[in-house]
Amino acid sequence: MTDWISSMFIIAGVGFFLAGTVGLLRFPDVFTRLHALTKADNTGLGLLGVGVALQGQSFRLAVLIALIWFLAVTASSIACHLVARHNLHSEEGER
Amino acid sequence: MTLFDSVLALLIAILAWRSVTAPDLYRGIVLFITLGLMLALSWARLDAPDLALAEAAIGAGLLGILLLSTWRVLQRAAPRQGSDEPASYAVRWLAVVGSTVFGGTVAVALYGLQVGSDRAGAEALASLDLAGIDQPVTAVLLNFRSYDTLLEMGVLLMALIGALLIRSPLAYEPWHGDTAVESPLMSVLAKVFTPIVVLVGIFLVWAGAYGPGGAFQGGAVLAGAGVLLLLCRRLYGDADATLLLRGLLVLGVTAFIVIGLLLMPWQGAFLAYPPGLVYVLLVVIEFSLAVSIALSLLLLFTGTHAVRAVRS
Amino acid sequence: MTALLTVAAVILLKLFALGLIRIYQGPSESDRILAVQLSGTTTVGILVLLSHVLAMPALIYVALLFVLFAALIGVAFVRHPGIGSSS
Q1: Which mean pLDDT values do the consecutive 10-residue runs of chain B (312 residues) have?
Q2: What is the dihedral of CA C3, C8, C12, C14, to 10 degrees?
Q3: Is residue C1 part of a domain?
Q4: Domain annotation covers residue C40
Q5: Beta-carbon neighbour count of residue B53 at 10 Å?
């Protein structure tokens, strides 16, 4: 039963990574690509982490994966905010 | 797993090739960082988590940040100089001949090499009980092979002195202005992220006693915390080093030598530790090494003699 | 079950390779650094999977380091480390 649930989570997680990568390649400009990226970061890694944590069956592993996910969400949102801001300012500078 | 390994090997080759042939500096740096990611994966596949940690912290992490920051400085200092011009034919041919001769010599030397049975590793693993520490890599680095590690610390100090002599500082003076990229989230980074980075760094040093980790990996992460504070403008490079700071820079080497010398009358040899105390001593040495490594790497980043906190 | 995790890791590695196209094409500096951020997250995902497949718990710490340094790389990209006090 756990195996089934964890498989579902992992497949869904990989799906989000796929969506993020396709978005990064197909979207027309930096800001829309940012949007694709954060989906992979947050949801993809989160679902993948839940899947692996269910497999691992250890509390320590689950806590570590949760910490990684929390840091990834924080880091990616801050980094993306900074990149977007930088891009906005440098575009204004060019005009 | 074979498929994974072959894709990984292919990616490493392509990324390495592209990062040296990239048309401009920035693309080269970006490719180098992604190469670091793949290298860490390959160390993981080679059953070497210690090296994967080192690669993540130093190769892809600190080095990538140093390169990006240098690129930003270069960009502002000199928009475009003629440095992109290819070298003259004579120089290029000299490089071709030189590297062919070097490669040939290495090939000949390797061909003539007698490959003995790999006894050192097996012996080290067999005598792990004597080391007093459970983690094989730390036991080898700090006990069986402590001369090497001591000299490596000397090399790191020399690198720092050399860098301070020749390079111009990267981060100097407290920052004013530059409101273009000033964002309220920077203070969140400084306040929330830095303590976590420091905690992870200390944990990795501590983890070296029983699992993958150790002074080099932990020290690099601690240096990363310092770099984060520099980028958030909480720290800045300073020209005058205090005695305390210099003391911390040589703390690792000093602790190593002093402990080694002090125990000589009882142990009869330099850098030999009594069995009962070995764990405590190695942890003390490991933490002093980590402090020195962190500070050296941070000063290598700034290119200054000291760092100082910005008083608000 | 390990088979599924391995397949997932291989797919993520291929997605990493696909993401490199954005680094190659650009066009802007921001596009390239975004591609690096995504490849970093993908690598973290691969490491989390591998730590279970290869039974190497230490790989979780490698993933942790990549997450921490990904934030620093993002900051280093926008930040001028500060030579000269104002410009």
Answers
A1: 89 91 88 93 90 88 89 71 68 92 92 74 72 73 79 89 80 52 74 90 86 85 90 80 87 88 81 77 87 91 81 62
A2: 60
A3: no
A4: yes
A5: 30
**pLDDT value at A85 more than 90:** no
Q: Nearest by CB to A37, from C28, C34, C45: name it.
A: C34
Residue ranges covered by each domain of chain B = 1-78, 131-312
Amino acid at B112: G
C26-43 tens-digit pLDDT? 788 888 988 999 999 999
The pair of three-digit structure tokens given for residue B3, joined into one six-digit string: 């498929």
> In sequence order, what are the residues at sequence separation of 6 or more whose Cβ sits closer than 8 angstroms to the Cβ of residue B115?
none
- A53 CB-near residues (< 8 Å, 6+ apart): A61, A62, A65, A66
Give me the helices (H) in chain C, please: 2-25, 29-53, 59-78
Partners of residue B196 in chain A, C-beta under 8 Å:
71
| Residue C40 to residue C46: CA distance in whole angstroms | 10
Contact A54, B146 (CB under 8 A): no
- Look up the domain containing C54 and give its range: 7-78
Instruction: Provide mean pLDDT across the span A46-71.
Output: 89
Contacts across the A-B interface (CB distance below 8 Å): 17
- The pLDDT confidence band at residue C84, using thresholds 50, 70 and 90, is very low
The complex scores an ipTM of 0.91
Cβ atoms of B164 and B303 within 8 Å: the answer is: yes
Collapsing DSSP states into helix, strand and coil, what is residue B238?
strand
Report the number of distinct structural domains present in chain C. Answer: 1
- Contacts with C, A 27-86, CB within 8 Å: 30, 33-34, 37, 40-41, 44-45, 48-49, 52, 55-56, 61, 64-65, 67-68, 71-72, 74-76, 78-80, 82-86
Structural domain includes residue C30:
yes
What is the mean pLDDT of the segment spanning A12-26?
89
